[in-house]
Design goal:
Blueprint: H1 2-10, H2 16-19, H3 23-35, H4 40-46, H5 51-54, E1 58-59, E2 67-68, H6 85-119, H7 131-140, H8 150-166, H9 180-189, H10 196-206, H11 215-245, E3 251-255, E4 265-270, H12 274-284, H13 287-295, E5 301-306, H14 307-317, H15 328-332, E6 337-342, H16 350-357, E7 361-364, E8 375-376, H17 384-400, E9 413-417, H18 421-429, H19 437-444, E10 450-454, H20 466-477, E11 480-484, H21 486-494, H22 508-517, E12 522-524, H23 531-544, E13 556-560, H24 566-578, E14 581-584, H25 595-606, E15 612-614, H26 618-636, H27 639-657
Parallel strand pairs: 4-5, 4-6, 6-7, 7-8, 10-11, 10-13, 11-12, 13-14, 14-15
Antiparallel strand pairs: 1-2, 3-9
Helix pairs in contact: 6-8, 6-10, 6-11, 6-24, 7-8, 7-11, 10-11, 11-23, 11-24, 12-17, 14-21, 20-26
Bound molecules: FE(4)-NI(1)-S(4) cluster and iron/sulfur cluster (SF4).
């Protein structure tokens, strides 16, 4: 009791304009204070991040410890077992990679399980929607498609992709997509992944006390495991989801909390696996459930998404998206949410308490994820509607019993989403010559300086959305085409950058390309597993020619400016291992000036991989990425072309002025 009181008096009031630039979230945080509700923003401001953990200078891998080293004097001490700072940091980092990779690959495996049961005819509520993509992917993997039944092709594809997970020896199937020279680098360094189960298991083994105690060797397995995510589990998740639910093509859609409707039953699906969301889409369109909602006095049922499965449904079907990771508690504060259904990943336990405050029903649906205080209605894929219908029915009851004032921020932002790798191919190349050549041409002639992937989470340790938005604006202003996924995509969508008219914020070269094609300067590719679309795009750019032979040669860079999850670390590591310079913000869990730090931030590049970068400042981040892009342009001998383009522009402007 005494203690509790103490923390209460210490609790700081939140300075809302310091923690978010999302107006809707800010409005809800104000309401939270009035309502006496606490969110992750409040908890972050009242709990300093553990400084030893932040530097990754501690180890608790055995009970001789936990051992605490000093970030200020990293080589002054070792752990009880003798582990050095480099071993300890490398092991901690490796376990983040293992966990992140496990999350993506387990998700991918669920999609593959669903696919198998659909093909076998055991599941009838889902079906193969995109047979063209099915055949394309099968062909790429060397499966015969000519004159064969879809079912047979699908079964062969299943068997082939299963190797991504369970294969004991040999390269994973999608290694076939990796540019020759990149694959050579992997082979030389012994990091081409086998099955992800084996890679993750081996990484967990090697980071146990008394096994791998050389940071270079641990990093090697980090690369292999991360690649088993990017080119394995994540890529399978994306490709199978496209085959089952359709490959995204551009679609106009709204984001932000203004997508909620006071006079409708509002249902949010939040999580990562599209099977729940797809079934919910059927449920909310069921005439009998719509009728039930109307009988309860609602105008209808309004389904919206959050986080990654939200970003997927936004891209695939134009389903409105109400906010990214740091808005999931805030949106409940509207009081307008009648039910929130969640599956896996990035679901804050804090949601349960906020939902309870507003009488919102929070449902877990996946056997992997339960939350104390939330009701569990499991999604069984052979009868998914039982789960999603029941969530709708519960939501209708909550609607009928709404007894609190509702406040919905009146903010909605329209944009164009759904740029799959296939569509970029088609859009730039035109119907008859679908190809990445025009993209490469525009990079070579300098209209587009390079391509940047800006992805990842939001994090209460930095001002929500601000780093994403400033970074992306700076990049496009400098003619860097930006591709996005996940919570970052939503940040920029809220800032209005997914409108084609946002092209005026781009440099003159990029602006010209956007206007010719009619595309926004920022392209959203979907959820975090859809980062695999960026890998495929990079492969295509290398394959088409003119920009070098490996991904490491390309004028591209990546960033996760507001990252928070272990998944982000796995993504960062697979981009680095694929050859991409990748910059993270917020914090980096390694002590600078250690050998392990030098390996990640420099040594890997010397081995033919990419490398890591770090800064919290979006402008510095953009500068680092552009500098890297320019370095690659110079190495390719295309830096002159760009100078000429800029001169042409200047000349033209001079002419126009005259
Ligand atoms: Fe999670 Fe995927 Fe991060 Fe968003 S970006 S906070 S991982 S929901 Ni993927
Ligand atoms: Fe300490 Fe070594 Fe045990 Fe880690 S593994 S807790 S460094 S004794």
């Amino acid at each position: 009791m005494e203690k509790e009181k103490k923390t209460e008096t210490k609790a700081k009031t939140l300075n809302i304009s310091d923690v978010t630039i999302c107006d809707a979230t800010a409005q809800m945080l104000k309401k939270a204070e009035k309502d006496g509700v606490e969110t992750a923003f409040h908890r972050a401001s009242n709990m300093k991040a553990c400084p030893i953990g932040a530097d990754s200078a501690c180890c608790k891998h055995c009970s001789m410890g936990p051992c605490r080293l000093s970030a200020k004097d990293p080589y002054g001490k070792v752990g009880v077992c003798g582990a050095t700072i480099d071993t300890i940091q490398a092991r901690n980092f490796a376990r983040m990679v293992a966990s992140g990779a496990a999350a993506h690959t387990d998700h991918g495996m669920s999609m593959l399980d669903l696919f198998r049961e659909v093909v076998n005819g055991n599941i009838e509520d889902y079906a193969i929607k995109d047979t063209i993509k099915l055949e394309e992917v099968a062909k790429e993997l060397g499966i015969e498609v000519e004159g064969r039944e879809i079912k047979d092709i699908a079964m062969d594809l299943y068997k082939e992709l299963e190797r991504t997970y369970i294969q004991v020896e040999g390269e994973i199937p999608f290694a076939k997509r990796v540019p020759e020279k990149t694959l050579e680098t992997w082979r030389k360094n012994g990091v081409v992944p086998r099955g992800s189960m084996r890679e993750i298991m081996e990484l967990m083994h090697r980071t146990h006390i008394g096994v791998d105690q050389h940071y270079e060797n641990i990093t090697k397995q980090c690369n292999r495991t991360a690649l088993a995510d990017g080119w394995g589990g994540s890529m399978v998740a994306t490709e199978i989801s496209d085959i089952l639910f359709g490959t995204p093509t551009p679609v106009k859609a709204d984001v932000n909390m203004g997508c909620l409707k006071e006079d409708h039953v509002n249902i949010i699906i939040h999580g990562h696996e599209p099977n729940l969301f797809e079934s919910m889409l059927d449920s909310v369109n069921d005439p009998s459930l719509i009728e039930a909602a109307k009988e309860a006095g609602a105008q209808g049922i309004n389904l919206v998404g959050m986080c990654c499965s939200g970003a997927e449904m936004l891209s695939r079907h134009g389903i409105p998206h109400v906010g990214n990771f740091m808005s999931t508690e805030a949106v409940l504060i509207t009081g307008a949410i009648d039910a929130m259904g969640v599956d896996v990943q990035c679901i804050k336990q804090g949601l349960a308490k906020v939902a309870d405050c507003y009488g919102t029903k929070l449902f877990t649906t996946n056997p992997r994820c339960r939350i104390e205080g939330a009701e569990h209605i499991e999604l069984h894929e052979h009868k998914p509607r039982e789960c999603t219908d029941s969530i709708v029915e519960n939501a209708i009851v909550r609607f009928k019993n709404r007894n609190m004032p509702i406040e919905i921020p009146n903010i909605k932002n329209t944009g164009i989403h759904g740029f799959s790798h296939e569509y970029i191919n088609y859009m730039l190349g035109g119907t008859f010559r679908a190809s990445y050549s025009p993209l490469n041409d525009n990079i070579i002639n300098g209209r587009i300086r390079g391509v940047a992937g800006v992805v990842g989470c939001t994090n209460p340790r930095v001002k929500q959305d601000w780093v994403h938005i400033e970074l992306v604006k700076e990049l496009i202003r400098n003619d860097v085409l930006v591709v996005q996924t996940g919570c970052s995509q939503i940040a920029l969508a809220k800032a209005g950058l997914y409108k084609p008219e946002a092209a005026h914020l781009a440099g003159s070269g990029l602006q010209e390309v956007c206007e010719t094609v009619g595309m926004p300067p920022v392209l959203g590719l979907g959820s975090c597993v859809d980062n695999s679309r960026i890998l495929i795009a990079c492969s295509e750019m290398a394959r088409i020619g003119g920009l070098g032979d490996s991904i490491a040669d390309l004028p591209v860079a990546g960033a996760a400016p507001e990252w928070m999850s272990e998944k982000a670390i796995s993504i960062g590591q697979y981009f680095v291992a694929s050859g991409v310079f990748t910059v993270f913000g917020v914090t980096f869990p390694i002590v600078e000036e250690t050998k392990f730090h030098k390996l990640l931030f420099q040594g890997l590049e010397e081995m033919g991989f990419g490398k890591w970068g770090f800064t919290v400042d979006p402008y510095e981040m953009a500068r680092m990425m552009i500098e890297h892009i320019d370095k690659k342009r110079k190495a390719l001998g295309i830096d002159k072309a760009r100078e000429r383009v800029l001169m042409d522009m200047a000349d033209r402007q001079k002419l126009e002025a005259a």
